[in-house]
Amino acid sequence: MKGTSSQRRLVLASSSPRRVQLLAMLGLPFVQDPSRAEEPLPAGPAGTVDPEDWALRQALRKAKDVARRHPGALVIGADTVVELDGRLLGKPQDRQEAMAMLGALAGREHRVASGVAVVDASTGRAATGTRLTRVWMRPLTRTEIEAYVATGEPMDKAGAYAIQGLGATLVPRIEGCYFNVVGLPLPLLADLLSLFGVRVLGPERILAHPGPGASGR
Ligand SMILES: Cc1cn([C@H]2C[C@H](O)[C@@H](COP(=O)(O)OP(=O)(O)OP(=O)(O)O)O2)c(=O)[nH]c1=O
User: Per the record, where is site Important for substrate specificity (predicted)?
Assistant: First the structure.
């Protein structure tokens, strides 16, 4: 069938193990080829950069960079940032910065923005989107922050926490897409892929899993 998921090669332009796990959940075959095209976060005054604009720009950069080495493929790029008081927080450089980020986030609401870009390497066409999730972190004592940072979990995560890990105990409430916080908003990604004819729940699934429904019994 023309334009179906079985015929488009998917490439994930990411080094993130979380994004690999999340994309694997969709059950579509893909290869991983990380990009190094991400820009450092802007150091300007608070409120000068919109988190969704920033995440989208980085997602597109990553996808376009990797698309150059995969002719004919559909390339997926994503980027996630945390925003607090108009400032963007990326991944902490060291444990001290992780402590400072968690100290600032503790007891407050912040926002997590992810951008996703799907680039068709054969035409250069791109489909993009963003999602914003509100996240409430409970108050934390200094000892709790130290203990959490000592686990190492915060080190490669935007905002220095992982909602999908031990960090789940720090977050009593969110509003918006959970997968957006983990780094790849799956409902958005499925919508973007469908624009290229890749359907997560296309008829190929029925052929691949013939059961009572498919046989008509
Ligand atoms: C807030 C939060 C972020 N994160 C992660 C998702 C991303 O991997 C990371 C944000 O960094 P990114 O720069 O978006 O991604 P990355 O450098 O890990 O991977 P790549 O650029 O190669 O795609 O933070 C979590 O895993 N859990 C969380 O709760």
Answer: 18, 80, 164
Of 79, 85, 156, 191, which residue is the catalytic one?
79
Q: Respond yes or no: is residue 79 known to be catalytic.
A: yes
Query: Is the per-residue pLDDT at 44 higher than 80?
Result: no
Which mutation among 157, 174, 180, 181 tests ligand 1's pocket best, with the greatest number of atoms within 8 A of CB?
A: 157
Taking each helix axis as running N to C, give the angle between helix 17-25 and helix 186-194, from 0 to 180 degrees, rounded to the nearest 10. 60
Tokens describing residue 128: 């993009």
In what helix (H) or strand (E) does residue 179 lie, and over which residues does it extend?
Answer: helix 178-182
Mutate to test the pocket of ligand 1, among 12, 15, 16 (most ligand atoms within 8 A of CB): 16
Question: At which residue do the structure tokens 């796990």 appear?
Answer: 21
Total tally of structural domains belonging to the chain: 1
Question: What ranges make up the beta strands (E) of 13-136?
Answer: 31-32, 74-84, 87-89, 109-120, 126-136
pLDDT exceeds 60 at position 154: yes
Q: Tens digit of pLDDT for each residue in 165-181?
A: 999 999 999 999 999 99
The response to whether residue 34 sits with its C-beta less than 6 Å from ligand 1 reads: yes
What predicted TM-score, i.e. pTM, was given to this entire model?
0.93
> What ipTM did this prediction achieve?
0.98
In a domain, 141, yes or no: yes
Distance from the CA of 203 to the center of ligand 1, in angstroms? 32
35 Cα nearest atom in ligand 1: 22
Task: Give the structural domain span for 102.
Answer: 10-201
Q: Is there a domain that residue 108 lies in?
A: yes
